[in-house]
TrEMBL record:
This is Methyltransferase domain-containing protein. InterPro entries: Meroterpenoid_MTases (IPR051654), Methyltransf_25 (IPR041698), SAM-dependent_MTases_sf (IPR029063). Belongs to the class I-like SAM-binding methyltransferase superfamily. Pfam families: Methyltransf_25. Keywords: S-adenosyl-L-methionine, Transferase. The keyword Mitochondrion does not apply. One of its GO terms (molecular function) is transferase activity. Residues 94-195 form the Methyltransferase domain. SUPFAM superfamilies: S-adenosyl-L-methionine-dependent methyltransferases (SSF53335). Pathway: Secondary metabolite biosynthesis. PANTHER family: METHYLTRANSFERASE AUSD.
Length: 271
């Protein structure tokens, strides 16, 4: 049997890693800090540690504690070239639950016009820490909104209603159970421009080959994600087609041991 203390310790190890991950997981972010933010290479690691710890103190998401926010997976999403092409042609992309806004900086660095990018998050502190992380408070012109996407009475996000063509939503839906995910989907649909035909929601999150609830959160494979979007579609008078694929990632824990995580990369297109 595992003692209470050991369990607590294990929980902490699963959420927080002192050492930076292997280079392949952070090379894009490092490049961004060096060549977009202009931070000298020998200052990057202490800078990253400082901002990461400040962000983890705001809320202890494993994606912050375990440095996953530095994995700019979005650049490898099959739709990434489309995101760049469409935003360059005027489409508006919203990063939903953008946290420190790393995906938005990457998109801008790769040529997406800042005036066509938007972000929102529940916590303003993360958005502020994003300016500290990327040292671009005076130059990054992307508008950020703050609000609770699950609270219909929260007006913080209403300025985005009916203004968006593309929504990036990474590590977001998996925070919630089925019913909240349906409400979240309904909220995202309201952000799209009226009558838009090529609306797309895309991202990556924790997945599973066997969909179901786990500690209050519902995890998906492609089939369950399609059922979710069928329900969101029924409630919003829209129709959606999901394409998703699962992959496995090994995570080595400090102090020994490994966890294997299923990830699901997805795109949901208006049908
Ligand atoms: C696990 S982080 C993922 C952040 C980012 N998308 C990424 O891929 O690194 C989850 C984010 O969702 C935001 N969030 C959680 N609940 C929210 C809500 N109800 N409305 C808006 N944002 C929320 C958190 O503040 C946090 O920044």
């Amino acid at each position: 049997m595992v003692s209470g203390d050991t369990e607590l310790n294990l929980g902490r190890i699963r959420r927080y890693q002192h050492e930076l991950p292997e280079w392949e997981h952070i090379s894009k972010a490092w490049n961004l800090l060096e060549n977009y933010s202009g931070i000298p290479p020998d200052e990057i690691e202490p800078h990253l540690r400082k901002v990461r710890d400040q962000a983890f103190a705001v809320f202890n998401y494993p994606c912050l504690g375990r440095w996953r926010f530095l994995d700019l997976y979005i650049t490898t999403h099959p739709a990434y070239p489309e995101l760049l092409a469409r935003t360059k042609a005027g489409a508006v992309l919203l990063d939903a639950a953008c946290c420190v806004g790393q995906a938005l900086r990457q998109l801008a660095f790769d040529g997406a016009p800042q005036e066509n990018l938007r972000g929102f998050d529940l916590r303003r502190d993360f958005i502020e820490l994003g300016y500290d992380l990327f040292r671009d408070r005076d130059t990054f012109r992307v508008p950020f909104a703050t609000g609770d996407a699950l609270d219909p009475a929260d007006k913080g996000l209403s300025g985005l209603d009916g203004t968006v063509d593309i929504i990036h939503a990474a590590a977001f839906f998996h925070l919630f159970g089925w019913d909240e995910q349906v409400r979240l989907g309904e909220r995202l649909v309201r952000f799209f421009k009226e009558g838009i035909e090529n609306a797309v929601v895309l991202g990556r999150q924790v997945g599973t080959p066997e969909p179901g609830g786990e500690r209050g959160r519902y995890l998906h494979n492609e089939g369950s994600m399609q059922r979710l979007w069928d329900e969101i579609g029924e409630r919003t008078g829209t129709r959606w087609k999901v394409r998703a694929e699962l992959s496995e990632e090994k995570d080595t824990l400090e102090g020994g041991g490994e966890v294997v995580r299923s990830l699901i990369r997805y795109e949901v297109r208006k049908a």
